């Protein structure tokens, strides 16, 4: 039985709500009848303590990065088999298209990498150097084939607005080890993704669990610095006075969003002392900047990767890096070469840096996108010119994990000879999310939250852990 807010007492309630120590703290405020508390869903020995989740917005062509398909190359320019094309819906292609092969000297070569022999394109020479740390899932599939819904489906378990994101679920279930920083931080390069802030929102969970977007320039969070003429002591007095009033209101109405507001005011004040040092990547030694390819003062994916390492080093639980610009309906080969050159070095550097610092075994790194790309071309008048691209494909694509609790240098699942359909060991989005939670020590079936009369979870009503990639 949960206590009501008035039974807890105002002072105790303020202290418990203000520090965000996990989902059980605000459960009292909500008077929620959850089937279990968040803590009960957590196993005793998690493999990973934190996550750096890289999402490539728009979906890179896995067929041109990780999936050598000799038959697809051989049949380049032939009609896509009718039975395959007619079995699915696509975003833009409406008439029977031509197969689009790759893996040729003209564009790139996908070759074995590392001792494990994992196939990786020579467009990613740095990632090839850390191949033995990676666990490929080649049979990922999703329910959505347009960007916004597919992003929400991957990141919240549902293709429409209103559900908590994976980072929010983790923030709810595990809390943050560092009370001077958010438990869930988001950084973006490029334009906002189609799902918008729902990709890191808290949905029906209290907003204290949503992701906090850090900017690359200026204050990482707006209004973090004191205005001119306002001292640190004055800011402390303002926060204390406002929260004293909020505390009275909270005791009267029991609205958890008041507790959220109070905790965010307190967190913002504490961040004033911790964040300036955190965001100063210029303090890193030269060899680190050379490793990542970073340039302090710029907005770049490389800078965000280095910042992600600094965040998990300081106890931030979940860091989400979004990189826009991977939606290549045309000119896929040139476009892919350009985009990959921006992310290859920093991602490999992140893995290397974490390994050298003894942090990789407790930090899970994820490479993801909302879906894959078709083995056939999207082109004008059916011609396979230099500017041919690939349409959205939800039936099969490749993601990978590395680090905390993952077996490196392995490949899970198999698609057909054209890379169109799964033929062995399918992995649904819910399976993927169940595995991610498992690596963090969470039983995905038990991490629930009661909303509108029923229990909800990240994996909806399905999902199985992919134990084959777990060490």
Describe, in plain words, how this protein is organized in 3D.
Strands 1, 4, 5, 6, 7, 8, 11, 12 and 15 form a nine-stranded mixed beta sheet that branches. The chain has a two-stranded antiparallel sheet with strand order 2-3. A hairpin with a 2-residue loop joins β16 and β17 (about 455). The two termini are about 40 Å apart. The chain is globular and about 70 Å long. With about 475 residues, it is an alpha/beta fold. α9 (about 230-255) runs antiparallel to α10 (about 255-280) and α12 (about 300-315) runs parallel beside α13. The protein has one domain (about 35-220, about 280-470): Alkaline Phosphatase, subunit A, CATH 3.40.720.10. Helix content is about 30%, strand content about 15%.
Keywords:
single chain, disordered N terminus, 14 helices, Alkaline Phosphatase, subunit A, globular, two-stranded antiparallel ribbon
User: Can you summarize the main beta sheet?
Assistant: 9 strands, mixed
Query: What is the rounded Rg?
Result: 23 Å
How large is the share of residues in beta strands? 15-25%
Count of individual helical segments: 14
Instruction: Note poorly predicted spans.
Output: 1-37
Question: Structural class from helices and strands?
Answer: alpha/beta
Portion of residues in helices? 25-40%
Global mean pLDDT: 86
Count of spatially separate domains: 1
Q: What top-tier CATH class fits best?
A: Alpha Beta
N-end to C-end Cα span = 38 Å
Please tell me the CATH architecture by its name. Answer: 3-Layer(aba) Sandwich
- CATH superfamily (homologous) name: Alkaline Phosphatase, subunit A
CATH topology assignment: Alkaline Phosphatase, subunit A
Shape label: globular
């Amino acid at each position: 039985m949960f206590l009501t807010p008035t039974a807890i007492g105002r002072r105790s309630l303020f202290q418990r709500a203000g520090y965000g120590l996990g989902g059980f703290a605000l459960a009292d405020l909500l008077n929620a009848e959850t089937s279990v508390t968040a803590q009960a869903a957590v196993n005793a020995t998690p493999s990973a303590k934190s996550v750096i989740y890289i999402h490539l917005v728009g979906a890179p062509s896995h067929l041109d990065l990780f999936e050598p398909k000799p038959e697809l190359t051989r049949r380049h320019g032939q009609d896509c088999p009718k039975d395959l094309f007619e079995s699915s819906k696509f975003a833009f292609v409406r008439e029977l298209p031509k197969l689009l092969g790759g893996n040729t000297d003209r564009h790139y070569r996908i070759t074995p990498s590392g001792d494990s022999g994992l196939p990786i394109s020579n467009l990613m020479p740095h990632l090839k150097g850390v191949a033995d740390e990676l666990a490929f899932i080649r049979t990922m599939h999703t329910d959505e084939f347009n960007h916004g819904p597919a992003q929400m489906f991957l990141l919240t378990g549902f293709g429409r607005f209103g559900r908590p994101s994976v980072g929010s679920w983790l923030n709810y279930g595990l809390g943050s080890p560092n009370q001077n920083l958010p438990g869930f931080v988001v950084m973006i390069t490029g334009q906002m993704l189609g799902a918008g802030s729902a990709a890191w929102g808290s949905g029906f969970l209290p907003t204290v669990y949503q992701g906090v977007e850090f900017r690359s320039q200026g204050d990482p969070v707006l209004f973090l610095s004191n205005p001119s003429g306002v001292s640190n002591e004055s800011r402390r007095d303002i926060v204390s006075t406002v929260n004293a009033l909020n505390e009275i209101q909270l005791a009267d109405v029991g609205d958890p969003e008041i507790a959220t507001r109070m905790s965010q005011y307190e967190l913002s004040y504490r961040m004033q002392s911790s964040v300036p040092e955190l965001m100063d990547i210029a303090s890193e030694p030269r060899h680190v900047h050379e490793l990542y390819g970073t340039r302090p003062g710029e907005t770049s994916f490389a800078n965000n990767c280095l910042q992600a390492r600094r965040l998990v080093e300081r106890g931030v639980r979940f860091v989400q890096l979004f990189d826009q610009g991977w939606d290549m309906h045309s000119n896929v080969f040139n476009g892919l070469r350009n985009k990959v050159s921006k992310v290859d070095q920093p991602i490999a550097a992140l893995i290397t840096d974490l390994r050298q610092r003894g942090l990789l075994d407790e930090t899970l790194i994820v490479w993801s996108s909302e879906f894959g790309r078709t083995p056939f071309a999207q082109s004008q008048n059916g011609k396979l010119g230099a500017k041919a691209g690939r349409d959205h494909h939800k039936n099969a694509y490749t993601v990978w994990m590395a680090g905390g609790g993952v077996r490196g240098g392995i490949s899970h699942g198999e698609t057909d000879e054209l890379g169109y359909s799964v033929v062995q060991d399918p992995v649904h989005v819910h399976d993927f999310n169940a595995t991610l939670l498992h690596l963090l020590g969470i039983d995905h079936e038990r991490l629930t939250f009661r909303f509108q009369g029923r229990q909800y979870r990240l994996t909806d009503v399905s999902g199985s852990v992919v134990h084959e990639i777990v060490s």
